[in-house]
Design brief:
Elements (H helix, E strand, L loop, with lengths): L1 H22 L9 H13 L4 H8 L7 H17 L10 H16 L8
Length: 115
């Protein structure tokens, strides 16, 4: 009798775990415009390291096409002007391009909430 109870209880716990895993959402990282702006300003000010730059540019921003376009421009600036040296990760020309990009980010119209 204890074997049957143990098996039933084990099956119920296993089924509960499987059900829970099936209904969990995959975690998503979603960078908003304000986060992108702060990260960009940190890079321009020389307060960001390479990891922060990778976080800023490493994730596609499908939820905001305008922000995705700016992210891709950042990657192009990185290709041309990145030094990787602290405190400033970019050449002076790269920092100038990032400042221009930040100004364009600030000029973007407010984003409509899609979710």
């Amino acid at each position: 009798m204890t074997i049957v109870i143990t098996l039933c209880l084990s099956f119920a716990i296993f089924a509960l775990i499987i059900w829970g895993l099936m209904h969990m959402r995959t975690p998503r990282f979603r960078m908003e415009r304000a986060d992108f702006q702060r990260g960009l300003e940190d890079v321009i000010a020389g307060q960001a390291d390479e990891n922060e730059w990778r976080i800023l540019t490493g994730y596609p921003m499908r939820h905001d096409p305008a922000l995705e376009k700016l992210r891709l421009e950042c990657l192009q600036i990185e290709e041309d002007e990145y030094t990787g040296k602290l405190p400033y990760l970019f050449t002076e020309a790269g920092l100038r391009k990032l400042r221009d990009l930040r100004e364009r980010l600030l000029a973007l119209p407010l984003q409509e909430e899609s979710e």
